[in-house]
Design a protein that fits this description.
It is built from 9 helices and 11 strands. With about 300 residues, it is α+β, with helices and mostly antiparallel strands. It has an 11-stranded mixed sheet with strand order 1-2-3-4-11-5-10-9-8-7-6.
């Protein structure tokens, strides 16, 4: 499906899928649905996730392009709808409960399917990219900032705390527990601590760029600056440093994902660094029960 949409860099690898299925609280018996032909060919699947407190729910589904137009996507999305309804009694009684689904914005059938099933588009996201023709110039760091190699046993908790703080302003973001952070970052099959850029100001983390290689390109998975160090050029410096490291390692193409309406100005920062929009994605939402939103 990613090939049909024209962006294979967002496809998930088998190891990433295995790690995703091993996330605490995810149960393959109840949270994944598969459609196959009588001879065993997989033509579609859909997954369900309890993102937060049984109130913020998520689904992710795919139908093989050869089998579109046969009702496979509709059947899967309705199956997920039933699974989501079963989650409502587990949420606090006054919480708003909703389910979200994100897809490539070029997926016309996906748009029509979600709209027909009562979903509304609420947010856009970009995959941005840069192709470096030559090594980037040397980085100028803000005064007092020092880069230090990431040492997991010494720095893991501090980076986890900094990551939570830096993303509290972001749409749909919630503080991750340390166990969730460990699973998503350190259990990631492509985790490479040598690619993590951690900027320190004395004994405090000022910012970070948690990088990795995926699908043949360099990938900035998380780039964040803590509030006291914002608007000092640190974000741009870490991004440019990451570009240089990927180039040095033989990967002149670097990508990242970003909320198109990011409130911290990240999209402008990335464009200033020379990145362009390679793909656009849209998030759909369906309210299952009205109520107060989670903080």
């Amino acid at each position: 499906m990613c090939e049909a949409d024209g962006d294979t860099s967002v496809a998930i690898t088998p190891d990433e899928l295995k790690n995703e299925w091993e996330t605490a609280g995810f149960n393959l018996e109840t949270d994944a649905f598969l459609v196959e032909t009588k001879d065993g060919r997989i033509v579609g699947f859909e997954e369900f996730f309890n993102e937060k407190d049984h109130a913020e729910l998520q689904t992710d589904g795919y139908v093989h392009p050869d089998f579109k137009g046969l009702g496979v996507g509709t059947s899967l999305l309705r199956k997920i709808g039933g699974r989501a309804l079963a989650e409502i009694p587990l949420a606090e009684p006054d919480l708003r409960v909703f389910i979200r689904s994100t897809m490539d914005n070029k997926d016309a059938e996906g748009h029509a399917l979600h709209q027909a099933e009562g979903y509304s588009s609420i947010r856009y996201h970009w995959r941005m990219e840069i192709k470096l023709p030559e090594a980037p110039s040397a980085v100028t760091w803000p005064e007092g900032i020092e880069l230090r190699p990431f040492v997991k046993d010494e720095h893991a908790i501090a980076v986890w705390q900094a990551n939570n703080e830096a993303f509290r302003d972001h749409w749909g973001s919630h503080d991750a527990s340390y166990e969730e952070f460990v699973h998503s970052r350190f259990d990631d099959p492509e985790f490479d601590p040598s690619l993590w850029v951690i900027a320190w100001d004395g004994d405090e983390i000022a910012g970070f760029s948690l990088n990795r290689f995926r699908m043949g390109i360099g990938w900035v998975r998380s780039l964040g600056v803590r509030r006291p160090w914002r608007k000092k050029g640190l974000g741009l410096a870490m991004l440019q440093h990451s570009f240089g490291e990927f180039y040095r390692l033989g990967n002149p193409t670097v990508g990242l994902g970003v909320d198109a309406s990011n409130p911290t100005g990240a999209t402008r920062l990335y464009q200033r660094a020379g990145m362009y929009i390679a793909s656009e994605f849209v998030t759909y939402e369906k309210e299952l029960r009205p109520g107060r939103n989670l903080k």
